[in-house]
Specification:
single chain, alpha+beta, OB fold (Dihydrolipoamide Acetyltransferase, E2P), DNA polymerase, domain 1, Helicase, Ruva Protein, domain 3, five-stranded antiparallel sheet, 5 strands, 50% helix
Amino acid sequence: MIASVRGQVQAAGAGWVVVEIGGVGMRVEVPSGRVAQFVPGDEVQLHTSLVVREDSLTLFGFTGADDLEVFGHLIGVSGVGPRSALGVLSALSPGEIARAVAAEDEKPFRKVSGIGPKTAKLITVSLAGKLAQYAIESDSAVPASSPEEQVAASVSEGLVGLGWREADAEQAVRDALDAGAPAESSGLLRAALVLLQAGRAGSRAAR
């Protein structure tokens, strides 16, 4: 198995990079969201996983060992192939994946091409308890949200619980804050509800 490659970047495109090793250009599939960091002429080292199929040998590479380990966990989930796993890591960092799994939130995975609702749910179930270290590391690197953001999130959740759509609830909370509503739960909730109800009344009148 090829565990890593190091050499000069010859070329890079959407989701791949060619690394020259001993005069041979080796193509490595990489997360598409991070291709910009591969500049022809620069030296790069990638942690790799060789996937063997009947008709192909494909090398998948990552700049971080964490990405490689999460990739291994993802392809171990039923229904998740190497390309789909690479797509997940193109859209989400190991920390974001870990947090979504810990929260049993399949929505981030459903946004990835090739990942349907059932597979997204299976990812959260299958990886439960396996990625805790990445969630902790990620949390330490992300600034804590401000008190206002925490109140806004709490009020949005409350509005969703009352039956409003998540997008409408979040927009109403933002609009209420922009209009000068107090950054405390009860006052912000009342202000957001006024905006939502006014919007609903307006849509009915337009009919």
